Amino acid sequence: ALSLLSLLSLPVSAGSPPGPEEQLVAAAPRWGWRNVSCPACRVLFGALDLALQLEPNVARVGRVASRLCQELRLARPPVCRQAVQLFQGDVVAAWARSVLRPPEACGLLLGPRCGHWDILGAWNLSLPAAPKPPVRPPAPPPPGAPTARILFLTDLHWDRQYVPGSAAACPDPLCCRGAPREGPGAAGFWGSYSKCDLPLHTIDALLAQLPNGTARAGNDTRDGTGGFAAAYWT
C-alpha cells in the first residue's frame, strides 16, 4: 500500500529513478499536501477509515501515519515523527468519530476537483421576532472609586529548541531551530517575525522587567508582582 501511494504521489521522470533520500531532498522546498495526487489521497483516507473501523489502535495508526507522512512528502521525516507523536491520540479520536468520508476529506485538502465538501457552506438561522432590548451605555466609575492593577500576558509561545542565528525561514511548520548560520535571514537573539516562537530568555526578560507599582501597607511590591491584583496568562 505504501509503494502504491508513493507511485500515485511522486512525479515520474526519465532515467534511473532517484532513491528515497534523493527524492526527499529534492522535494524539500515543496513539502505539503500539494505533493499528493487525488487518487493517492483517496487511497490514503480510505485505508485509514477502514483501519480505524477494524481496530482503532492509536500506536499502530500512529506508526502508519508517520510512514505515510514521509512517503508522501507531507513534511521532513523528523517533522512527521514529532507531529504524529504529539497529535496521534487526538487525530485518531477525532477521525474515528468524524462524519467526514474520504472523498470529502480529499476535497477539503486538495480542492473541489478531488471531492465535494460543504462544511463551511452557506446556512441560515431564523431568529425570534422579539425586539432587541435597548442599549444601555456603560457608566464610568465615580471619582474616587477603588482601582486595581491587572497583568495580562497573551501568546507567549516558548520554543525550547530556539537557536539565535539559525534560519528564520524554512519549509518546516516552525523555524528558528538548528545550527546557527551567517548572513541575513538569521533568527534574532530575542526572537524573529517569522514562523518562529520565542526563546525562554525573552520570556524571562519580560517577567523580570515588570513594573513594581506602588507599595502599599502590607503589600510589598519589591518582587515586581506584588502590585498586581490579578494576572491573566492566555
Can you summarize this structure?
The chain is mainly alpha-helical.
Keywords:
flat; mainly alpha; two-stranded parallel sheet; 234 residues
Write structural notes for this entry.
- Residues 1-15 form the signal peptide.
- One of its GO terms (cellular component) is membrane.
- Keywords: Disulfide bond, Glycoprotein, Hydrolase, Signal.
- The protein is mainly alpha-helical and 234 residues long.
- Among the domains are: 33-110, no CATH class; 150-210, no CATH class.
- It has 7 helices and 2 strands; from the N terminus they run ααααααβαβ.
- The protein has helices at residues 2-9, 20-26, 38-54, 58-71, 77-96, 102-110, 200-208; strands at residues 150-153, 230-233.
- A two-stranded parallel ribbon has the order 1-2.
- Helix 1 (2-9) packs antiparallel against helix 3 (38-54) and helix 4 (58-71) crosses helix 5 (77-96).
- Mean pLDDT is 77; it is low at 1-15, 18-29 and 214-223.
Biggest sheet: strand arrangement: 1-2
Topology, number of strands: 2
Distance between the termini: 44 Å
Question: Helix share of residues?
Answer: 25-40%
Q: Which structural class do you get from the secondary structure elements?
A: mainly alpha
Radius of gyration: 26 Å
Helix-strand sequence: HHHHHHEHE
Number of helices: 7
**Strand composition percent:** under 5%
Mean pLDDT, as a whole number? 77
SSE blueprint and pairings:
Layout lengths: L1 H8 L10 H7 L11 H17 L3 H14 L5 H20 L5 H9 L39 E4 L46 H9 L21 E4 L1
Parallel strand pairs: 1-2
Helix pairs in contact: 1-3, 3-6, 4-5
